[in-house]
Design brief:
Arc Repressor Mutant, subunit A; three-stranded antiparallel sheet; 3 strands; transcription regulation; DNA-binding transcription factor activity; DNA-binding; HTH arsR-type domain-containing protein; WH-like_DNA-bd_sf
Length: 123
């Protein structure tokens, strides 16, 4: 990920509602959520949410998929991973043992088998 792409992602997440949307969609991976359900769970007006979803889609952090009459929003896990890697690329000055607690915080939700399945569905 280059700096411009990272900055666009950070800008998209720098607004409280958009950050809440992103975190809610992460929670609902791999199924995703329809826009109406996102609005209901976050208590955000539909027209306001539409604008926030558009910004997140344009940033590449989420994607929209039409399923029948609904649009389902899902996190682009590859983009989220690239953003995290961008932040942590030079972590700990070449001393990986310092990063062990950070990695340990991610392990409960990120087993290797679930990662492969999630990434395959993110394509």
């Amino acid at each position: 990920m280059d700096t411009d792409k990272a900055l666009a992602s950070f800008a998209a997440l720098s607004q409280p509602t958009r950050l809440d949307v992103f975190r809610l969609l992460v929670l609902h991976e791999p199924e995703g959520l329809p826009a109406g359900e996102v609005a209901r769970q976050l208590d955000v007006p539909h027209n306001t949410l539409s604008s926030h979803l558009g910004i997140l889609v344009r940033s590449g952090l989420i994607k929209a998929e039409r399923q029948s009459r609904q649009i389902i929003y899902r996190v682009r896990l590859t983009s989220a991973r690239e953003l995290a890697a961008f932040i942590l690329k030079d972590c700990c000055g070449g001393r990986p043992e310092v990063c062990v607690p950070l990695i340990a915080d991610l392990e409960p939700c990120c087993t290797p088998a679930s990662n492969a399945a999630r990434e395959a569905s993110d394509a």
